[in-house]
What we know:
The complex is a heterodimer.
Chain A: H1 3-14, E1 20-27, H2 37-51, H3 55-66, E2 70-77, H4 80-83, H5 93-106, E3 110-117, H6 124-138, E4 143-151, E5 155-157, H7 158-174, E6 182-186, E7 207-213, H8 216-224, H9 231-260, E8 264-268, H10 281-288, H11 298-314, H12 334-341, H13 347-354, E9 361-367, H14 372-389, E10 393-400, E11 408-410, E12 417-419, H15 429-433, E13 437-438
Parallel strand pairs in A: 1-2, 2-3, 3-4, 4-6, 7-8, 9-10
Antiparallel strand pairs in A: 1-7, 4-5, 5-13, 6-10, 11-12
Chain B: E1 2-10, H1 15-25, E2 28-38, E3 41-50, H2 56-70, E4 72-78, H3 80-86
Antiparallel strand pairs in B: 1-3, 1-4, 2-3
Amino acid sequence: METNSILETIQMVSEEKLDIRTITMGISLFDCIDSDGKKARQKIYNKLTTKAKDLVKVANQIQAEYGIPIVNKRISVTPISLIAAASDDKDYVEFAKTMDQAATDLGVDLIGGFSALVQKGYQSGDIKLINSLPQALTETSRVCGSVNVGSTRSGINLDAVQKMGTVIKDLAKVDPVNCMSLVVFANAVEDNPFMAGAFHGVGEADCVINVGISGPGVVKNALEKVKGQPIDVVSETIKKTTFKVTRMGQFVGNVASKSLGVPFGIVDLSLAPTPNEGDSVAEILEEIGLESVGAPGTTAALALLNDAVKKGGVMACEHVGGLSGAFIPVSEDAEMIRAVTGGHLNIEKLEAMTAVCSVGLDMIAIPGDTTAETISGMIADEAAIGVINNKTTAVRIIPATGKKVGDEVEFGGLFGKAPVMAVNTNSPADFIHRGGRIPAPIHSFKN
Amino acid sequence: MKAILTVIGHDHVGIVAKVSTKLAELNVNIIDISQTLMHENFTMMMMVTLDNSTQFDTVQKELASLGQETGLDIRIQRQEIFDAIQKL
């Protein structure tokens, strides 16, 4: 027995909050398509509750036997805009309710895929789904939605960007907290296990298991032991640590896949923070040598972290996928919240940071009087960063209806609280209202 | 099934006796054992085997309640996870 290895592993879990952030079962709904919406929904309910019937049980069993916490059990499905398009339903709210019912009956935490892919234009189901988003996400508790508005191959659909600004405002009018269930993407990935952006891509197998790992605390702890050493050592330390964390993800995914009789898809190598102390990506950046996240140097430190996480993780698992990088959600990271509240971090710096990590402006509360056009402008900027840099970017912002800069929005649990951040108030309205499509960048033509 | 059992806590008389008695009652076989004091904390690790008739969750619950009674942190985890993380 190698005593030190055993103690190190136990310490990683008990003190450094290493966990499997999510086991997400991706389920294709193509065989549920029906011209009668009601029949389609019955087929969807039946398929979900058949394929995922043991998901929660198996995850809990793995957690108990191997002593590794599995925080979330989730499902992602084929984008509903594709599945519901064959029906003549006028809106798709009932589809969201069916997903919600199946998730509740199965005991899974969240179900993603109330989604549309409109980077190049709308098919008939897309616009119905987008129009249904405010009501669907208000009247369900476990459903997550996403809309892909741009890609490196097709450019940015400015009509959709404009529309999503309005949808987010409408959603926030009822309750700002609902906005945490909606992500606007550029270059969305088809095997993402993380919410709110998970959906099961059209090129995926019928049913797969994807795993999202976590462990900012483990990385921070490892870096504490190399204080003052050259940055190369920092990179090496992150790589070695991430390797171990990812091995655990690969192992848990293998066990889950075998127990459920479902193929193992990918491990998503993401450092996902929680508001718990010692589980923060911002603290890693500060450990690298910044007085506060947001200081000059933050983008460089984050770039190094993101790259080292991937390099360490790639060799540790069979297939890497999903978003794979460091997440920088404001509300879900205690140190990020402190930096914002203390005036050390603003939206412009966060935007710069999204150019070098996954994923985007995430869980950021903005003043309630921010216009739909300004939100669209923020979406367009993020999409441009993704499209030009050939990476995924996303916007999950929360217009805090009735609140102003300095107030707070409470989400509860793992989602934390978000201080309302200042947004540039100069209007992009004329730009957004031009509509149309921003052409794909020149470097996308690789054939 | 092989598992790793760890016992960590304040050192006092009879820890090894209590843990091994409980394991015997539960039909769990000890195949390796190591024990040390780290910063005055009693730290014991055991490699154990459970036969197929022994319920893992029962063993886990019994050990956890023994841990509560004696003020020790007692964990049991299947051994493969340690190999997965620590070995290539």
